[in-house]
């Protein structure tokens, strides 16, 4: 026996049962009792350990995106964008990087149905040679609010009522009636694509604006988009009810079964870029997360493909313990001043230290595959084996040095401290354009969903009027239709 080779791992399973410390277990059926009828002896350490482990099997579920499914595969560069970024994993066509992807719903619990109207998470962890890059996106390209200060309230409004524990429309339309910037997101959520058919048939988007930086330090704002090669498919209400009624894990199953059958899901990655010197040229703020960048002015550029060709081995290790974080980037990709992104940079690792513990990045699914080193260590559940004698920096005994410097955006930041809103809100134009791009039957379904939401008994006249005013500002005829079906006067 090589005592140093042994680690807790199913690769080294013994052919018989043992306790966690490795002692043989000769009876895994009966508790140790006085006589055959009991009482049970507390000294049955194996029984106590078995129950204690079981009692602690669950960890806190994610505050949002609790319900998810993951799979593994690779990302392959198909187009050269090395003039835009010095990111090593994007260095040239043909380069492949291993990934793990987690799809999710947002609002409901870990075991909730996958057929609910809700955005879907689309989070990709790239295990690059320069550390991990997490692209933590959604299936819609915009978001409800543009300032992270509003995120906890927004989530509370969308989550079940704390008294009834039921998701209630009056709370949702009440909260968002204060936030006309949410209209654009609602043209996605209340559209047919508000219930994707499954995870394979939906788009993905980085949503927030990031920055690509070239070797020479030139920065470009960037938005990331995933397009499924098998097309986008959605469920209408009746289909969703039928599917959800017979299998509340249909999307997880679809993903798992497709990969097991060798029918590997694939997405193409596209980017849109804006030169920061041109950011004032638009009638919207490009860093406003409630806006899309019009593709006719800022075209999609192909970058690569994502293929999911391996199912996870263990749901707890590779789904529950997975931790994605928008602040985990690599040289060549940086944040932007997008206020919502700035808040996300803080929130994810904070919740993960709570949800998984301070050493969550040592967990195999989260740890970089590249070599890494620092003097941040110990704490609960540290399982990194270290043998250094120098755990401080700098030291004349330790050759570890700084990594090579890489470029980050060099734009000057200027402004006074303030709590304020952005200048170019432009809340109504893009939602109106999107609604007008729908075919008439699609518009009709969109209107029906709004009538249903606004018909909740607890929605007041005032709230209905505000929504009619908002939708009228996006599209006059939409406002008129809503008003007439709700027996209200159209207003502006
Ligand atoms: C300020 C705004 C936001 C805050 C504070 C926030 C916060 C969070 C938190 C706390 C989690 C749980 C993480 C965990 O426990 O591992 C989470 C998960 C997630 N968020 Fe956000 N979020 C925000 C906006 C967004 C936006 C705009 C997107 C889409 C681009 C997004 C996509 C996701 C995804 C995909 C997950 C699930 C990751 C996974 O699969 O584990 N979030 N978010």
Automatic annotation (TrEMBL):
Q: What's a Pfam family in this record?
A: Catalase-rel
Query: Which Gene3D superfamilies does UniProt cross-reference here?
Result: Catalase core domain
Q: What is its EC number?
A: 1.11.1.6
Instruction: Name it.
Output: Catalase
Give the protein's function. Answer: Catalyzes the degradation of hydrogen peroxide (H(2)O(2)) generated by peroxisomal oxidases to water and oxygen, thereby protecting cells from the toxic effects of hydrogen peroxide.
UniProt main location, coarse:
other
CDD domains the record matches: catalase_clade_1
**Which ranges does the record mark as transmembrane?**
none
This protein's species is Fraxinus mandshurica
Q: Which domain of life is it from?
A: Eukaryota
Keywords on this record?
Answer: Heme, Hydrogen peroxide, Iron, Metal-binding, Oxidoreductase, Peroxidase, Peroxisome
List the Gene Ontology MF annotations in alphabetical order.
catalase activity; heme binding; metal ion binding
Listed GO biological process terms: hydrogen peroxide catabolic process; response to hydrogen peroxide
Domain called Catalase core: residue spans? 18-401
Q: What class of enzyme is it?
A: oxidoreductase
- What is this enzyme's catalytic activity, as reactions? 2 H2O2 = O2 + 2 H2O
